[in-house]
Amino acid sequence: MTSEPLRRRRVISPRARRVRAIGVGSLAALLLVVLGFAVWANSPYQAEREATLEVFRNGGIQVAAVDEGILMTPLADSIDLPENPDGLVFIPGARVDAYAYLYQLSGIVEEQGVTVLITEPTLNLAFVDTRELDDLTSAAPHVDRWFVGGHSLGGVRACLMAEGSETEGLVLLGSYCANDLSASGLPVLSIAAENDGLTDLDTITESATLLPGDARFEVIEGANHAAFGDYGPQSGDGERTITSAQMREQLTALLVELLR
Question: Can you tell me the distance from the alpha carbon of 136 to that of 142, in angstroms, rounded to the nearest whole number?
């Protein structure tokens, strides 16, 4: 009868232990960074309740949550709907709740019969959302002409989306383009806020060469970066001296001119 050979005990050198410890520590640090980023991205600026309810109470507008985002459509009983309806795909700023833009964009729905789709990007960040314009316009197949726009970094994403797509125009709210659309011939409306502390007028001016020569630039006095939505103050922003209702009125007037 033979006995089984004794198993040799594996000896780990001090250097191997250090390497293993560094590896485990690095992995733990990476996981903490990923977790922290996920928590940060999923903690958006929330829409203000009263502004949101104002839209839901509006008898001329229907609000629906669809796969593509938040859809605002005009109701035929309250407005003479145009024969060739227009639509606007709108991309929120980074970490801003999509519902925060309902009230400010509801004016063009109510007055012009425009359908508005506000996207809900993955992790509340426009650049994580890889959908193209055609993937979003399917939410309202009755619309004939689509415009695309966005606020802050959402506008930067809208510029990329407008490149090579069949869109009728581009709307930038407190935003700018990082890609060259100067030869696109695309109608562009860029609206800045006088007291914007996050996308200042110098940044918009410097990037103007990336837009067509006939792009229109407007500034809303008394507005700040967060005034393009209704989600409260934003860190690093300037002072706001106009009301939400005043902002909506001026924003609607400017958007109507482009959509006409």
Answer: 13
| DSSP letters for 68-137 | TEEEEEE-TTTS---SS-EEEEEEPPTTB-GGGGHHHHHHHHHHH--EEEE---GGG-GGG----HHHHH
Q: Let me know whether 128 and 217 are in one domain.
A: yes
Say if residue 32 is in the same domain as residue 156.
no
Whole-model pTM?
A: 0.85
DSSP annotation string for 191-208: EEETT-SSS-HHHHHHTG
Is 1 part of a structural domain of the chain?
no
- pLDDT, one tens digit per residue, over 147-187 is 999 999 999 999 999 997 889 999 999 999 999 999 999 99
Give the tens place of pLDDT for each residue, 208-224. 999 999 999 999 999 99
Gap between the Cα atoms of 178 and 156, Å rounded = 6
Pick from 176, 179, 137: nearest CA to 155: 176
Element spanning 250, H or E: helix 244-259
List of residues 6+ apart from 20 with CB closer than 8 A: 12
